[in-house]
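Assemble and predict.
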Amino acid sequence: MNKKKKIRGGLSKMMLQVMWTRLIAVVEGQAKSLVRTAFSATVSEAGDLSAAVFDTEGRMIAQAVTGTPGHVNSLAEAVKNFVLEVAPSRLRDGDHLLTNDPWLSSGHLHDITVVTPTFREGRLVGFFACCCHQVDIGGLGQGPDAKSVFEEGLYIPIMYLAKAGELNDDLIKIIKANVRQPYEVEGDILSYIASNETGGRLLNQMLDEFPNISFKKLADYIIDFSQKSMEEKIKHLPIGVFRNLMKVDGYDKEVILKARLEVKQKKITIDFEGSSEASKFGINLVYNYTLAYSAYGVRAALAPEIPNNTGSLAPIEVLAPEDSILNVRKPAPVCARHIIGQFLPDLVLGCLQRVVPEGIQAEGSAGIWGIQARGGRELSETKVSSALPTFDLLFFNSGGTGARPTSDGLSATGFPSGVQALPTEAVENFAPVIIWRKEFRPGSGGAGKWRGGLGQSVEFSVVDDSSFAVFAMFDRVENPARGRKGGFDGFRGSVRTSNGKKLKAKGKQVVQSGDRLVIDVPGGAGYGKPIYRNPIYVLEDFKLGLIDAKTAKLVYGVAFTSGGAIDFERTKLLRKQLKISKA
Amino acid sequence: MNVEKELGWEIGVDIGGTFTDIVLRSSSEVLSTKVLTSSETPVLPVIAGIKKLAGDIGIPLKGINRVVHGTTLATNAIIEKKGAKTAFITTEGFRDVIEMRTESRFDQYDLNIQMPPPLITRDKRFTISERLSATGAKLINLNKAEVNKLISILEKEKFESIAIGFLHAHVNPIHELMTKKLIRKALPTIPISISSEVSPEIREYERFTTTCVNAYIQPVISPYLGVLEKQLRLIGIGCPIFLMLSNGGLSDVETGKKFPVRMVESGPAGGAILAGKISKECKLDKVVSFDMGGTTAKVCLLDDGKPDTAREFEVARQYRFKRGSGIPIRIPVIEMVEIGAGGGSVCKIDEYGRILVGPESAGSDPGPACYGKGGFEATITDANVILNRINPQIFAGGKLELSSIDAKNSFELALARPLNEPINICAAGAVEMVDENMANAAREHAMERGKSLLDRTLIAFGGSAPLHAVRLAQKLGIKKIIIPANAGVGSAVGFLDAPITYETTRSFYQRLSLINKKQVSAVLAKLEFEAKKVVERVSSSGSALCYFSAYMRFVGQRHEIKIRFPSSELTSSSVQKIRENFLEAYRSQYSQTMPNVDMEVVGWSVTAFLKQPPIKIRNNKVKSKGVRPQNTRNALDFITGKNIEHKVYSRKNISIGSKIIGPAIIEEDQTTTLIPKNFAAQINGYGYLVIEEHIT
């Protein structure tokens, strides 16, 4: 090869890499600015949003890594739908499109997607899009209780939010008339326009800086590179079919999630055939959302370092039977789809256990235990009448994650969701309640060579001890997180009152005045047999109060001397006995 | 030698992880030295360095007027876990707050992340039965019997420091004070940090970690400061000693002993102060400062000569620079973004053939491959040597001759061979990638702050910055770059220009439409009293001035904007002023406001300061003059792929007014400046290099 050509070829390859890095930074910045202005707590606390850039064909080229995996692929699918709906040739600079159609974007009406075409010298070069959770969308409010999507709020098909820079006031008026917090929703939607426009400006600035490389060339490079890298990863996996079945508590009845994962030459197909049928309640998933959570599981396990885009997602195929809980049709209710969606990564990871040579983490508590409560005047019962104004409250509590093949699970930490907990002091400032306890739940992590993460216990009442209602939406009360390779299951969750009354894990219930709600959030499961856990870690767990002496002895087979050190002689003996008794 | 009579001499000391920088300055001269830091006896090199610097030009140490000191020792004690054996006492039911963190993962895709271990492990965390409500009312009285029982444990277990953090103590400190009193009486020598004094702000996780950090490093930092003071006195320095704090203000040694957490990250603050001074001198209202050394690059935004400030930052990030992986500290601080990009940043490729630069650094020992000290890793400094941007003979004033063969070998092995590309292309790619990484960090930072970069001037200092500054500016759309004199010891120089100031903060929630002016005024008066007390302790003349700030947002939002207002006595008109200031600030950040949404104030702060002498403005209209290059050399241009001839100058030989047209390289002892094609530089009236676009 001619030396000059070689230099130019090499440089252009380097330039493409640099531009890819830039593109990711641009969408990350776009996402961060959305988080800062958002009124919806799930956006500002949990990063429940997505932001990405697309080419003219609607292929996703770069996406911000945000808090909840449910958005990973939903947005990629959404923009394809926009391109189909509106002929790109008709689009002009200053146009902005909007929808919240659950089946076109990310699975429930609360998420509004705004897509903005970007122009360069008068020609369309691509799209910027973002999708954010709204603080309200009308209807029954957030929860699984609607019988159909029509009861869940305002439903907006793909429409122009602005045309050539002129805002569609009619649409804004309709939205504001339908939601409980009109100004906040309006402010949020307007900030999506600003954020997409910023993205477009930065894209043009980059193309100015690297005049030799067109966006089309960059897009082809990124998609091609990502798809090939992903295929390369899959090529090294054993070909075959790997199955997993998971039972979760569900809303009104147990839900079965069944997955059949097939590794082919360059492709992975996940089929959810055999999963439960659609629920009457709003815990159903649209296909996009199922795809997003499944793809997240595969990508995190196989190639977390390859960024998300149409290329890296292409080798993952997801099939879900129509009208199953994982692929409902309109008008099924879908509002609280995350309740089931959060289990999908664990379900898919379970299939990969025998595929990935390094092993896969054990199951975790998966669902976040949000305490949603209502109290105050409206709810006061006969005996004590509360003078407090009616209040609604939601705060998040995470359980334990599953133990990993080479380390313990994480205690009181969300997975797969990225929800951040609210500080107790903030909750108590926000509503007239007292959180009496919020700390680790000792012993709840499944025993194993690597221990599951601990859950937590939370105790809660209203400030004047009046009665209050809790809208329970807790899972893993019946079905614990399951251990792997001889690791023990994590502790199940429990819902009760401090007077010892047992409560249901689902639905609205009243805690009587003078009593307190107590939740014990589930622990993550263990990995490997407990008798193989390093005795030093067992002693440390004991000293930190994470396990008791009885568990140390009977489960881990570790004995301590009276001085608090490891009794190696007796430990050896204990472990031998445990091995025999298990055999 | 013209010994300054009027203002006398001042000393700035910056103890970093590798080097201790010492600057001796009068109003007409700046002398500096870099000595190696001693982690065992950090005071020794300081004393030796001062003696040498002063001795060299015959300044009597008695004649020193002021010593200003900043250090990373506090930060390092946390990172290296070299603090004291510390107990944490908290509210029953909340033993695990500092370990539960935010209950979220800082990396969405990495299934194997490890959370940073808590500074104080669970067995050293104790709970006491007590409880206050959000308004500070007592729900459960402090159980004194439990405290007394705990005291005997603390004594038996030989704890060296104690942190106390109860829920809602920022509203009502009564239980913390009572507990402190009981322990103090029984164990009078053990230092005690309480959350209502260290960081009286809402959000228990951040308040508790800040208090724990303070307690953890106090038994290390306090004696160190004592030794420093004593040693300086022993060599005859009798002048006041000031400490640099994280917010870019100075305070006395007492404050550092009591609240050592306020000294964390005080080093980088010096750089921001330097940038502030330069922006005032050069009359620049919008500036971005860029400080790039061997390991990290820091970027800070300044408006009207004032650096951005924040109330919280993270220290000891587990995954270098990954947000959420460290320990949050809630104190007033200069807001900057720091990323792992420096001369020592390691360049490699991943399994897919993508170039990665940093965040790991080869450090200084053995350092980059070209140092020839046994290091083999390909670094940015190696790339700059390969590309002919650094002259191997004159690096670090010629003290360390670089080996371009070792540099080339390192790139051959790490990048060129696996990628099957020429060495110089790989080096160019790595340099472009590190510039891109820094530009992205700066852009994201500005975006988060809701500020534009386009209309700003870039002020660059630190050993590596002048080589990368112009390309960084291009990427950010910035048109003007300033590189000050003594760029290599920028932070220590900055210390000497820092104002004497102290900031007190407190969370106190108010809905703006329902604001209780009397209560807020009382809170502000107390903050004002505390802030002034610290400042006036070191003031020889007159009383401190104050300004007041509110942290505001629209009701329902999570992130606040800091709004200034003039007086602690709130009136209807000052509330109106606060409202207007907020709306204006919001609009300028997010280009819209929420006309029908109420506003809320979540925190208040008072900054007391002493009036500084005005900065002397020099005539910046200099007469342009040409200057002859020493020689020329070729360096590769990334965009065109061509080798371009650069004229080479020595900064020693250029003076006020000298104009240099790119492509050019300017060399000096501690750094090298690169001026690409289509740019030109001129030395301004202060001796700073001003670089601007110059298209012929």
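Residues 204-234 of chain B form the longest helix (31 residues).
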